[in-house]
């Protein structure tokens, strides 16, 4: 329970946790997860040269992390509910630290890819548990809103910080430090977790093995198929076969869960409008955020000819805007109509992404990049925090991990789908550009991707305005 007026947790009258330490722990966990999505990107050329990667294999330094992370998110979210929050946090942190050390000392491509897969496995546990611990530690209302605001700041700005940190470490030290950097973070987070995170959950030790295998296989095959569209066209037999297999596995997962006595995902949770709507919006926000961030980074490096460190520094306003948006949302959730807050944030993000679509080789940081960075990041910060608060409100503590895993899986899946589809679009537009200038052709491809992802964000804003429950409406009320 909670001590009146303090927000500190008690157990049998004894103080067992300080909310500040809990929040610091989960934010460190989330920081490692999002940093490692982007921190290796700028180090890829040095990694390939040092370890002897073939050019066609180098993308697996990124993809190994993404594939395992995305494939195991549902299972990772449920692990916390089944085996306990503290155990899950500590196991995830230890695995992340060991995998990072092994990656830093890797001598062959296979060793580094295996280490990145290990980091992805740890991330699949840490990402949902970080949100789960917030849900069970902080009461609904102002305490949870403030905690979710901090968590959202890290979730959005961490990717941009990864680009900056990767550039600094690669330029000033060595590519191996993009792996080693996690070790001090783990060393800092472990004692905080031991001192503050309760071992809640663990009420039932039953694991739906069939559901876990089918759900993990469906997510893994889907993410793998999307990643492979870089090499195989969407209409190729391989891509269609892979995505078809993912669909069959997903149908099998749903049928299994409907019959399971202890399902991995209790499907009736989607009867609550705020849950299924939050997951749908998280899918769209993930697509807009990941794809927009990716193409903005490419534009800086390939069109404006920024180096890794300069590109990272250019993303600092994006970080600042995300922090501002998340902070504002933590103060406005509960006071402002959710339709206005989520829909308005998505609309603002969409406008910023559309503004990115006007960039050209003649653009500069001040005249072309700074404005859309601030507008898009503030809007995304507003919408992500408010949508997460909506999707986690009123959820029983025993299903906190499930809902957290679903929200993280939706955002990750949306990012994979959006990035795969828009990368194909950008390459097609670049290849068909009428100009003989390769830089202008690249800019045209990136601009088209921005226009599409911005339009998707505006469509999500309209969806939010129409479907987010009005204040005081029942959560299970149909629109």
From TrEMBL:
Transmembrane segments: 22-43, 58-76, 88-106, 118-138, 150-169, 175-197, 209-227, 239-256, 276-300, 306-328, 340-359, 365-386, 417-434, 446-468
A cellular component annotation (GO) from this entry: plasma membrane
Highest taxon of the lineage: Bacteria
Span of domain Major facilitator superfamily (MFS) profile: 22-472
Keyword Transport: yes
Annotated membrane topology: Multi-pass membrane protein
Keyword entries, A-Z: Antibiotic resistance, Cell membrane, Membrane, Transmembrane, Transmembrane helix, Transport
Record's protein name: Drug resistance transporter, EmrB/QacA subfamily
Origin species: Streptomyces zhaozhouensis
Source taxonomy: Bacteria, Bacillati, Actinomycetota, Actinomycetes, Kitasatosporales
